[in-house]
Amino acid sequence: MPKKTLANLSSSDISGKRVLVRVDFNVPLDQKGNITDDTRIRAALPTIQDLTAKGGRVILASHFGRPKGDDFAARVADKFRLTPVAARLSELLGQPVVKPDDCIGADVEAKVAAMADGDVLLLENVRFHPEEEKNAPEFARQLAAIADLYVNDAFGTAHRAHASTEGVTRYLQPSVAGFLIEKELQYLQNAIENPQRPLAAIIGGSKVSSKITVIETLLDKVDKLLIGGGMIFTFYKARGLSVGKSLVEDDYLSLAQKLEVKAKEKGVDLILPTDVVVADNFDKDADAKTVDIRNIPDGWMGLDIGPDSVKTFQAALSTCKSVIWNGPMGVFEFDKFAVGTEAIAHTLADLTKTGTITIIGGGDSVAAVEKVGVADQMSHISTGGGASLELLEGKVLPGIAALNDA
Fold first, then answer.
1. Of 135, 177, 249, 295, which alpha carbon lies 20 to 30 A from 159's?
2. Cα separation, 102 vs 297, whole angstroms
3. CB 228 within 8 A of CB 200
4. Which of 207, 262, 321, 395 is the catalytic position?
């Protein structure tokens, strides 16, 4: 069901109103507490700026890290405070951003009451309260009490039914999607439900077990399925090949065989690498060589796809009109074993220039295209790893289901 979005609200719906906006400001910090990647903050700017321009009083809510403990006092720690985020957001917006020391309570209520039209306030980390993740109704009601309407623009947390993503919608009307969520749904749902064909999916990562559902779902949707990453060795072993010390999930061998059979039955071109880069141990400085998949030596492990595989993948992708990519081709954290992943990133950037729709589905794939410097050349970069996977799997995302229907 299509959801109401910010575009459905007029200036009069927003002017002078207190707008609670759930954002995903869970950004990485270095040892000194400096933000190393502000992509998620910048992704929320269109929604924030639209609301302030229309005279909304914008109250932002986000989690930050994974505070542990049974209560607020145990969870509060400076390393989990949103203070550096407020400073960076203030720079990006060119206006002050007020940040209280909590997300509920008398001080928060006073600071909200002092807001003028166009002001921005960032609540403290909602996960300082264990009730957030429990979706406790009373906590959701307290969050909602400081606002008149709700906008969810945190796609990265839309697959979780938490108080600030799902619970507050019971107390605030209207509850609508922000521009970021609208864009995520447009690209990801269209890619699956109404794609320009041929449609290819590239699925990487280390384990078949973490991607089974998405692979099974995609076999009903795609024309080509390219598989890379550590999971390929489970498929190879299922074919009876020797894989040395490579990562294998023995419990999933029969499933790998079934997936290959299903692909044939569905007429899906399931493409596995033809050669791999193997190493004598799991180390960035390990001895490495490229071998045919039938010749993986005993005691060696595969850590990347090889150059012939890259050419095979490039040839398969060259005719596609839509491509979804989720998961790296190898251990791309080690430069020596990042070659395959980087080649696929460059390939997709080149295809985008020729009109192919390219969608990078969150997590490590996003880190890879950013590392290579081609992120801005893709059609769409998803901000939610888990959420984008669940959407591709056809699951209902609670944070989106709770919003008003269009």
1. 249
2. 57
3. no
4. 207
Active site residue 363: yes
**Residue 69, phi-psi category: left (phi > 0), alpha (psi -120 to 50), beta (remainder):** left
- Among 156, 205, 362, 363, which one carries the catalytic annotation? 363
| Residue 90 neighbours by CB under 8 Å, 6+ apart | 96, 97
Q: What is the DSSP string of 166-216?
A: TGGGGT-SSEEE-HHHHHHHHHHHHHHHS--SSEEEEE-SS-STTTHHHHH
Place of tokens 């060696």: 300
- Quote the distance between the C-alpha of residue 10 and its chain's center: 30
> What contacts 212, CB < 8 A, 6 or more positions away?
252, 255
Contact between 92 and 45 under an 8 Å Cβ cutoff? The reply is yes
Q: Which of 40, 127, 183, 237 does the annotation list as catalytic?
A: 40
Specify whether 40 is catalytic.
Answer: yes
The amino acid at residue 349 is A
Q: For 100-154, how does the pLDDT look when each residue is reduced to its tens digit (9 = 90+)? A: 999 999 999 999 999 999 999 999 999 999 999 999 999 999 999 999 999 999 9
What is the pLDDT at residue 392?
79
* Active-site residue flag, 386: yes
Please state the rounded mean pLDDT for residues 25-50.
92
Share of residues in the chain with pLDDT > 70 (%) = 99
**How far apart are the C-alpha atoms of 212 and 259, rounded to whole Å?**
9
What is the predicted pLDDT for the residue at 1? 62
Range 330-335, long-range pairs (CB < 8 A, 24+ positions): 330/228, 330/229, 330/277, 330/302, 330/303, 330/304, 330/305, 331/282, 331/303, 331/304, 332/304, 332/364, 332/367, 332/368, 332/371, 333/284, 334/283, 334/284, 334/303, 335/284
Nearest-angstrom CA–CA distance, 288 and 303 = 9
SS3 355: coil
Residue 273: pLDDT over 70: yes
